[in-house]
Write a structure and sequence with these properties.
- The protein is mainly alpha-helical.
- It has one domain.
- Helices cover 56% and strands 0% of the residues.
- It has 3 helices and no strands.
- Helix 1 crosses helix 2.
- It is elongated.
């Protein structure tokens, strides 16, 4: 269960990170020398990790409910049954 939850948590980054894309060139804050104009203006890792955890938990609960109900039986999905 922990391994499957870890996969949900890692994959949730692909859904959360695109929504944190306010670029530095769009913001009024001055850029630091050497900063890429497309880099995020502010980076808040705590908020991103919290959103990833919430999304992963919701996804895992849905998966687990389907597994317990028999909707996501590994034998049926792989064609062994």
């Amino acid at each position: 269960m922990l391994a499957i939850y870890s996969l949900f948590w890692a994959f949730s980054a692909f859904f959360v990170l695109p929504f944190h894309g306010r670029r530095a060139e769009d913001d009024a804050t001055p850029q630091v020398k050497g900063q890429d104009p497309g880099a995020p203006a502010t980076f808040r890792p705590g908020r991103i990790l919290l959103q990833m955890t919430i999304l992963a938990t919701v996804g895992f609960v849905l998966y687990y409910a389907a597994y317990v109900s028999g909707w996501a039986d590994p034998d049926v999905l792989t064609g062994r049954a």
